[in-house]
Amino acid sequence: MSERTTTAVPNIAPESSPSSHGKEPHLARALGNRHIQLLAIGGAIGTGLFMGSGKTISLAGPSVIFVYMIIGFMLFFVMRAMGEILLSNLNYKSFSDFAGDLLGPWAGFFTGWSYWFFWVVTGVADIVAIAGYVDKLAPGTPLWIPALVTPVVLILLNLPTVKAFGEAEFWFAIIKVVAILALIGTGIFMIATNFTSPNGAVASLANMWNDGGMFPHGMFGFILGFQIAIFAFAGIELVGTAAAETKDPEKNLPRAINSIPVRVLLFYVGALVVIMAVNPWRTIDAASSPFIGMFTLAGLGIAAVVINLVVLTSAASSANSGIYSTSRMVYGLAQDGNAPKAFGKLSIRKVPQNALLFSCIFLLAGLVLLYSGDSVIGAFTVVTSVASVLTMFVWSMILVSYIVFRRRRPELHAASKFKMPGSGFMPYVVLGFFGFMLVALGQADDTRLALLVAPLWFLLLGAAWYFNRRTPLQQARIAEWKAVRDDAESVPAAG
């Protein structure tokens, strides 16, 4: 046994119930490199890019490319922090595990349930998007039909083995990648041939700066762009929830995480540059997908229909990933006494089916949202704003856990082969950026609502933890965690 494992296993003990160490069936390590790579891509390319980028462009203009680059840059460090901690102890099932281990049982409870709620909210947003695009492809279809059918399909995709989920998500991600590459290729051809649109605009890179410059709405517009753009990256941490089901995680997780900058530059920045070069940014409809708009402009009617299907597939992929991750998160919470025991049971195929069904039930909230808002994009904006606050909380917990990890377990940090770059200061820089993001969300009425809803969630969660922590199991876990913490802090930190 390696020095890393020998050192780390005792430290996780307070945060793990006996069932998590071999007395119950384990999750199967069935996800190979291609599954994890495409899971990471699928997590990074979500509905927010396809559906929300139109509104982001209308708010920020061409400076939107800097918005996506800055967010991608910051989140790369979150992912590196997560990767270093997960690889320091392969007994961690997810970042909820290490948050509880490093910060205390309360942190595992808050992180796990907040991540569950984030994906439920995101799943609802995806169902709203799916209903909207089904209506475009088949006008007159009642919105409640896709809102009901989608959760059933997701259950059928996830109830078989985790490998079946991995295969489904692999092909979902392939479809998204091919669609974006097709859009970039089509756009480059239109720019090279000086394509002229019906309104007289000529496709050219100069469209990026000829209409008001790169910052046509000034710094305020630039800041507003962050509101919607941040949601496009929600799910980028998905590989962290798959850690316990990944083959050869010490090799495959770093590969998936290190590819993030390339993905951001190619799929986000590349696609948006092409869209705004072909279609001057002021002409882009904030209420629809610019991806569909560009293919329509090119006269590729069938391609526009195909992109509608791709956007629909993207939403289904996001919801599918969300259901997968929430079921694993609830499974881990149940094993630690933070959720009903029934959710900690695995099926004969090693799938947490009770936790899966529990999460799917909440997706039916999409029905209510569809019939309560004025428009699909309006409902989408409100829901995604709430999701953005929740995911930033989870990302922040990962960074705070990392800060504590470096302080209390310097020997593991020193031994790591996957250290976070700038580990001494970048966690604080990124946390400061998240503070800026909260300010940005408060600048518009539709996103400001999220700042009012999120505190209610944390109050509810705090009340639940107040009662849960009083159980004998939690009292024992808290006492053990404090003992391990005190022992660690009594030893002078090395390096």
What do these coordinates show?
The protein is an all-alpha fold. It has one domain (26-466): Amino acid/polyamine transporter I. It has 21 helices and no strands. It has helices at residues 3-12, 33-44, 47-60, 64-88, 95-103, 105-137, 144-158, 162-192, 218-232, 238-241, 249-258, 260-278, 290-297, 301-335, 353-362, 365-370, 376-408, 410-415, 426-441, 445-468, 472-490. Helix 2 (33-44) packs parallel to helix 11 (249-258) and helix 6 crosses helix 20 (445-468). The longest helix is centred in the middle third of the chain and has 35 residues, at 301-335. It is globular, with a radius of gyration of 23 Å. The chain starts with a helix and ends in a 5-residue tail after the last helix. The relative contact order is 0.19. The model is unreliable at 1-23 (pLDDT under 50).
Write a concise synopsis of the structure shown:
The protein has 495 residues and is mainly α. It contains 21 helices and no strands.
